[in-house]
Amino acid sequence: MEKTMKTTRLGIRLGLILVALVFLAACSDSNPPPETSLAEEVSSDPVLLKESFSVLLAGTLIGKLEVEHDGGETRVDFEFRNNGRGPTIKEKLSLAENGLPSSWTIEGSTTFGNKVAEHFIHAGSKASWQDTTGTGSATLAEPRLYVAQEASPYAIWVYAKALLADEDHSMPVLPGGTLRIDTMQQLSLKGEAGDLSATAYALSGLSLNPTYFLLDDKQALVAIISPSFALIREGFEAEDERLRGLATEYSAQRFELIQEKVAHNFDNPVRIRNVRIFEPSTQELGEPVSVIVNGNKIEKITAADAPALAGETVIDGAGGTLVAGMYEMHGHVGQNRGLLNIAAGVTSVRDMGNNNKVLSGLIEKIKSGRLAGPRVTRSGFIEGKSPYSSNNGIMVSTQAEALDAVRAYSGGEYYQIKIYNSMNPEWVPAMIAEAHAQGLKVAGHVPAFSNANAMIAAGYDELTHINQVMLGWVLEEGEDTRTLLRLTALRRLPALEMDDPKIAVTIDAMVASNVAIDPTLAIHEALLRSRNGAVTPGSVDFIEHMPVGIQRSAKTAWADIATPEDDKAYWQAFDKIIETVKLMRDKGIMLLPGTDLGGSFYYHRELELYQLVGMTPAEILKWATYDMAAYLGQDEVLGSIEVGKYADFFLIPGDPTKDLKAIKTISMVVKDGTVYFPSEIYPELGIRPFVTAPSVQHLEAKELL
Asked: How many CB atoms are closer than 10 A to CB 44?
């Protein structure tokens, strides 16, 4: 019978996204009350007429948020830069007497350059707004909150005050949905000017994950926290590590409760009856069978009509297809993505760079069964220090430090090292030699002021992202790819001719040196083909199942599409990418399926896109399962459904060898012997399920089927 997960902690999940937070404006009742100064709402303390916050990534200062309250208006300046990019936001905001905004103007640019010109106003009974998704309006009988697309993190204070003043701490919002605030715990913080009492809260309702933040005893904003990012009141930066640890634990506690509800572990064998197994060796579906799982291994595969044994749990596959768990080869694993990947049939992820300490803790929680998540293959991230650094993994300033970083990743815990943009290209050959001597593979971006040809010659085993290769064909000497140029320069791609000799030189070098590539097609599609007001192509099949905030974000462009010429160039650039990846496949270069978008739904899209380069659905399934297990040296225990291998697989009602979209309707996932039903998981995250769960029957000692 099913075991009960031993979990008692209470918490609410992480939801901070500093890059593109979904924040509120709000509207008042039909008779607009007079406006009042935000400073009066914050406190009578004149110090709070101006507020300053530091934006930190894993303890490194990457930006600032400045607030000034003056004459009934609040002005906010927000900016950070990490990895050569980040948002720049300026706001003007006025509150009505009821504490809700009566006007809100937001201007600037998003992380990837899309221009922001958002306006909200409430007049009489009418609320109207304009944002990157389009325009909207509503006639209101009573006050209601409105969701802003591109507000700065300071907006969280505005709606926190509104929610705390509400009787049940919950309010409906425009254009749809509900926000809720929950109290987490009381804290005492130590700052440069002394101690401070604060309360931690969680805000949820618009996205998949709550946002955690702190207010002081006057309800002024103190911090917004996540496991990696934090925005902290100036003078309290020393509390960064502690607060990020709290955010990690709050998130873990929430997912622990969800795990208790949705993870099914059985004392006795589980028989998955009447299924057809996808066979990688033939790329076909086998005849109907029953698969018996005992513990975390596949114990037996028998005829579909073989009688069940007493004490078994029988799951009716109803003639559906069983596919081995898939591999996301470009992930950055976090607590908020683990369960989503499991529900999507992604049971293994190669992490391509992370906060090493945070990831180690997460892996232990997954292994212990405390949290749901995929098996993780680790990459050791190494970045050179520069004004454009990605603050991740190990950062180095000299070749000696770079070699020490390589050695730090040796010992078996890591599969490879990953080299990043700000690395001095002159150090790379020595790093590769040391990595190979330590038994590590080498993957990475092309360091700035170099090109893919040089990295291939230096000994790369794998190149990361197709743009990193193609930029070498369109950049001028001296152009700096540590900046957004490594993305915006892609609009030059349509001018390429595929028979250009420089393209052949790179591809021939990859073939000769057996260099693989992780193209990450889905993220390039999102960058090049998202447009304001239209659902991005990669989200069409699932977006209506998502919370309102995510639905709106799917209608926002990433890049700054300023002119019709830009629109055409960016759109056609993706066609050129597809041509290039097809040429690579035709030449026999090893391609790897990864998203850099968190996997799950976007992983399904990643696989779907490879049909454009000539792969059949059956080839794609084999590639995403068995071939990736073999690539990582795990094919003896994973990658196919065979007796003795780990029980990592998923059930779908359709035939994915005929229509790959069938993988988007998963009814059951088994990971390491634990059974999950996505129809139970998705409602916990605010997602409308796609299909129902299969029927389950627990056979008593005398009961047989």
From this structure: 8
pLDDT beyond 70 at 256: yes
Q: Are residues 256 and 343 in the same domain?
A: no
Tell me which residue of 181, 180, 238 sits closest to 214, measured CA to CA: 181
Q: Is residue 696 part of a domain?
A: no
Average pLDDT over every residue of 517-538: 97
Q: C-alpha dihedral over 72, 179, 226, 596, to 10 degrees?
A: -110
Q: Are residues 247 and 342 in the same domain?
A: no
Q: Are 436 and 343 within one domain?
A: yes
Find out whether 639 and 280 touch, Cβ atoms under 8 Å.
yes
Q: Please identify, among 260, 284, 307, the residue that sits at the C-terminal boundary of a domain.
A: 260
Distance in angstroms (rounded) separating the CA atoms of residues 486 and 444: 14
Domains identified in the chain, total number: 2
| Co-location of 248 and 347 in the same domain | no
Are 101 and 222 contained in the same domain?
A: yes
Same domain for 240 and 347, yes or no, is: no
Residue whose tokens read 């607030």: 67
For the beta carbon of residue 533, count every other beta carbon within 10 angstroms: 12
- For 534, which DSSP code? B
- Can you state the angle between helices 564-586 and 501-513, rounded to 10 degrees? 40
Given this model, what pLDDT does residue 10 score? 26
Say yes or no to pLDDT of 510 above 80.
Answer: yes
Confidence category of residue 506, pLDDT binned at 50, 70, 90: very high
**C-alpha 60, offset from chain centre:** 21
Smallest Cα–Cα separation from 398: which of 385, 416, 379? Answer: 385
Residue 270 belongs to a domain: no
State the average pLDDT for the chain.
91
Q: Are residues 232 and 117 in the same domain?
A: yes
CA distance 210 to 204: 4
List of E strands, 270-365: 270-279, 284-285, 289-294, 297-303, 313-316, 321-324, 326-331, 346-351
- Angle at which helices 335-343 and 240-262 cross, to 10°: 20
The Cα 326–Cα 340 span in angstroms is 13
Q: Supply the pLDDT for residue 173.
A: 84
Three-class SS of 248-276 = HHHHHHHHHHHHHHHCECECCCEEEEEEE
693 found inside a domain: no
What gap in Å lies between CA 371 and CA 263, rounded to an integer? 9
State the DSSP code for 26. Answer: E
Q: Which domain holds residue 559?
A: 326-634
Q: Does the residue 410 lie in any domain?
A: yes
Contact (CB, 8 A) for 157 and 22: no
What is the domain-level CATH number for residue 515? 3.20.20.140
Using DSSP's 3-state secondary structure scheme, residue 308 falls into: coil
CA-to-CA separations, 629 to 329, 348, 592, 650, in angstroms, rounded: 10, 9, 11, 16
Integer-rounded Cα radius of gyration of the chain:
26
Burial code of 477-486, b = ≥16 C-beta within 10 A, e = fewer? eeeebbbbeb
Helix (H, G, I), strand (E, B), or coil: what is residue 500? coil
Same domain, 247 and 376: no
Total residues found in the chain within this entry: 705
